[in-house]
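Sorry to interrupt, but I need a hand with the structure work. Could you add the entry underneath, on a fresh line?
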Amino acid sequence: MEKPKKVTTYTLKQMKQAGIKIAMLTAYDYSTARILDEAGIDVILVGDSAANVMAGYETTLPITLDQMIYHAQSVVRAVKRAMVVVDLPFGTYQVNPEEAVRAAIRIMKESGAHAVKLEGGRQVAEAVKRIVDAGIPVMGHLGLTPQSIYQFGTYKVRAKEEEEARRLKEDALLLQDIGIFSLVLEKIPATLGKEVTEMLKIPTIGIGAGKWTDGQVLVIHDMLGITKEFNPRFLRRYANLYDEIFNAVQRYIKDVKDGDFPSDKEQY
């Protein structure tokens, strides 16, 4: 069997130039990552959204660097083709650039991931530069940045006003000049997503940023219908696993209670 060709930063740039859309999903464990990789996903994001869907926190802020490394290790063990990008958690890059580099190096060394992602523009530019200068690929993230949710005070669409849109475009160009290889655009007007995508040489990955970005990303638990409460306009559910799992568990409970499981064929 031919070994699958690895997806790299160079691959993603080639895909943008060729007009081939980039498919990205989150994963936090070995079993899920293996399915995504074998299905042909291009990029797996080990997102700090693990704080929400894996640990039950209201925001992404509580997850630690050690926890992100644990999830990343689990994902990397499963992957043969996809590129694995890991979120730098809140508090690891906002204080000073040196701490940001140390956190990024830990992720790369201890997990075997291929890149890191961090949120923000000009305010984290020096941290991004230091990480890039250390030889670590960086994916940027602009628009709605969940780690800043208490500053925003809302999960509403960002950059609808002209001034914020202008700042976002300036930040996108700044990050590109510093050397990021890709940029996530979250919950911004589709027309702005198109404008940013067309003005950048690096690929953009949208989540609620319209159809003109170079790729799309969703949280796996949302896309598979494991979560039920989260229903933003940009989310398309491709399955309803909450109900599937719920019903399967109820059937199992009934079979155990009724003495129907295990049957004669299911014992030794």
Remarks:
- Residues 51 and 60 are 5 Å apart (CA to CA).
- Strands lie at 22-26, 43-46, 83-87, 115-117, 138-143, 182-186, 204-207, 215-218.
- The chain has two domains: 9-237, 241-268.
